[in-house]
Amino acid sequence: MSDRNLPSEENRRLVLGIETSCDDSSVALIRDGILVGQLVSSQTTIHEEYGGVVPELATRQHLQNLLPLTTELFRQTGGNIHDVALVAATRGPGLPNALRTGFTFGQSMAIRLKADFFGIHHHEAHLFSSFLNGNPPELQLGSAHFPFISLIVSGGHTLLVLVRDLGDYQVLGKTIDDAAGECFDKVAKLMGFPYPGGPHIDALARIGNPNTYRFPRPMINDPGFDFSFSGLKTAVRYFLRDHPGAIEHEDSRADLCAGIQAAIVEVLTARTIQACRKFGIRRLSAAGGVIANRGLRESLEVHSGRHGIEFHPSSMEFCTDNAAMVAAVGYAKWMRHGRGDDSLRQLETDIRPSWPIEESGEACPVGGME
Ligand code: KG4
Ligand code: ZN
Prior knowledge:
- The structure is a single chain.
- This protein has two domains: about 5-135 and about 320-360, Nucleotidyltransferase, domain 5 (2-Layer Sandwich), CATH 3.30.420; about 145-315, Nucleotidyltransferase, domain 5.
- A hairpin with a 4-residue loop joins strand 6 and strand 7.
- The radius of gyration is 21 Å and the shape is globular.
- The longest helix has 29 residues, at about 250-280.
- The protein is α/β, with parallel strands linked by helices and about 375 residues long.
- Helix 2 runs parallel beside helix 3.
- Helices cover about 40% and strands about 20% of the residues.
- The strands form three sheets. The chain has a five-stranded mixed beta sheet with strand order 3-2-1-4-5, with helices on both faces. Strands 10-9-8-11-12 form a five-stranded mixed beta sheet, with helices on both faces.
- 5'-O-[(R)-(carboxyoxy)(hydroxy)phosphoryl]adenosine binds near residues 22, 198, 199, 288 and 290.
- The site of zinc ion has 5 residues, from helix 4.
């Protein structure tokens, strides 16, 4: 990517990304399309004792984190804050007050620095995180080879999206109840694992037999591409009620984890591959915390290969919520449109906690800050 289209003065080459949609505070810096630094402050240990994310605590942590994290980012990268030409902050969807902290912080920075600003759709950022490649990472949108399908699976979302171009998205399927990560976590809680339980199930599933206990594969053959995971959770609840001994013994506990994981993985894989085939799409990207699951990565890899689909999972570092993906999408949009979005000029200071991804293209500029 060349910098000849940079909308600001030549020496302003930095993009600051900010992410606060849930329980991770993250800031990242991009210089000329290359990621030069990222910091993530995870709040897992704070929420752990409550068994899930407590929105009020998350908000308070973001407020405490944002300024020190940003200062540290500039210190570590040697970046000069006055070289920031664009600030990109997550605008939605997510926890309202958590979003508000990062969005307002970002807008304030942009006003102070006379930089452009982009409010970014959180899922849109996940869509492209698989294409943050290289060392140091660059958003290689060229390698995105539109169109592609993306599976986004985390504690908060389960989404299958057809990506025709930057800003042109069609949601093919989503969960009608629990998100895939939420299902992992709730089932793990029933089994007595601490929050978040997904990684614990993953670890034990590796040594368990997935065929000892069989759990339902909800909606696997239904028309459309939606997902449902609450029935699986209920099935596990009843199973544990009727077989309390199953979690007492190490072997059966591992088999149980393997059986539960196999059900989730099979549903996610089957629906994703069905969607690729139906729409004739030969590229698949995948992101979100649950993509860290080894069974799911392997299954998507194997089944993609069988159907001649290129599989591009996000690297572990960019699977979970991070500001690099926010900065990267902000940068890509800014390069394409030549300016930031309209939010500052129109004094649109509000976040969008339930922002449909199909509408995120609207945020593209007809103007920018003047
Ligand atoms: O993307 P993320 O860090 O945060 C959001 O929810 O936005 O995803 C966290 C979710 C949790 O539900 C966690 O249990 C799940 O990702 N997760 C996993 C694994 N690692 C994280 N689930 C299954 N297997 C894993 N290895
Ligand atoms: Zn996320």
